[in-house]
Amino acid sequence: MHPLSTRTLAAGRFLAALALSVTAAMAQSAETTRLIESIQGPALYSAYCTACHGKDGKGGGPMAKSLKVAPPDLTRIAARNAGKFPSVRIQRVISGEEALPAGHGTRDMPLWGTVFSQVAWDQDLGRVRIDNLARYLESLQTK
Questions:
Q1: Strands (E), the chain
Q2: Domain locations in the chain as residue ranges
Q3: Which of 43, 49, 24, 39 is nearest to 124 (CA)?
Q4: 102, 103, 91, 104: which is closest to 136 by C-alpha?
Q5: CATH architecture of the domain with range 37-139
Q6: 79: which residues sit within 8 A by CB, 6+ positions away?
Q7: pTM, entire model
Q8: 3-class secondary structure for 43-70?
Q9: Which of the four pLDDT bands, split at 50, 70 and 90, describes residue 89?
């Protein structure tokens, strides 16, 4: 066999193995992140927030009673901020970029922002998910 053919064959095998490894890693990563397909705020809220904050956002989800600190009423975020919804801050809280209040204990709330953008091929959609979830929370605000 010609030396160039051997190198071409070896390179082909390497690329095939690399592709298989990347595919397996992506599947495993998506599996461990529990990332849903939707990027829509209501679907994200339903999948990641209702267990603690409840369907209505008022903090009465089925897991709320088992937490050390009661989940806050997410419909009153604007009211707690002089009537203005702090969208950028809320996005930073969701993503884990901003610390939660001291009363939150040991971060019982999963910081889903890292889940939204931890899949390597989905970095940009992670920010879209965070923005869409924050916009949905803004839509829940009491008037």
A1: none
A2: 1-33, 37-139
A3: 39
A4: 91
A5: Orthogonal Bundle (1.10)
A6: 141, 142
A7: 0.69
A8: HHHHHHCHHHHCCCCCCCCCCHHHCCCC
A9: very high
